[in-house]
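Quick question, first post here. What does this chain look like in 3D?
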Amino acid sequence: MNDFGYNLLINLISSSIAGLLGAFVAFWIERNRRPKLTFEIEKPPVSLGNRTHLRILVHNQRMRFFERNPALMCSALIEFYYPDPDRIPVYSNDDGTAKSMQGRWACTPEPVQPILLPNGQQAKALPNIPHNVDIPVDEKCALDVAMRFSGEDVCYGWNNDGYFHVNFKNDKWRLSRGKYIVKVKVKTGGREFNQEFLLINDIEFRLSYH
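> Answer (accepted):
Ran it through. Tokens below.
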């Protein structure tokens, strides 16, 4: 091989390596710019009159060197389990899997809002409340988990359905006094983030890390 052919081969190999390296770096950056959601317990619990609400804060973490993408169309599901080794669901489907409670994002409007009728009376309307939210970079959105009235032993899993039950008590997600594992699952962009917490429904009413 003469010098021309040798240099041509070296240039071709160098260009190929540079192209592959550039593609890898671009892929790595784009992959790491995807949203990264983390979970933390909101403290203190939220008091609304004689109701106490327990919530989880979902955080779209910021990157150090690159701008991360917003977490778009985040949807949440919550499951409740008894805290035993068998992980028996509190509420289950026919096949034994845990029933999932559609999550309510506290940053969205309440589904039931008073409206004034032409005759001066008030009625309640159901706006089109989305179950999905966008979480910008380095921002948090609160996700409701459970609610309890003051002086009562029973608490209830809390979502938009609770607004349509007497005294906000949805027996579909009724939780007696005790401890429960809460599994929070949030989906965005085809990916799922999840974390488990311990719900303590006793003299204290609080969430802890599991």
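The mean pLDDT is 85.
The longest strand covers residues 71-81.
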